[in-house]
Amino acid sequence: FLGYDLDDDIPDHSVLSKARARWGTKAFQTFFERIVIQCADAGLVQGR
Length: 48
What we know:
This protein has helices spanning about 15-25, 25-40. The chain is mainly α.
């Protein structure tokens, strides 16, 4: 969903830490909740 191919280099985990510090935890919480909803809608996850 981010546009990376399987053989592309991905950003270091510190990039996410810096972004979280800049944008705040709430933005990341909302982002990940939306991803989980999309996965559930696609039938990739079940449960609560």
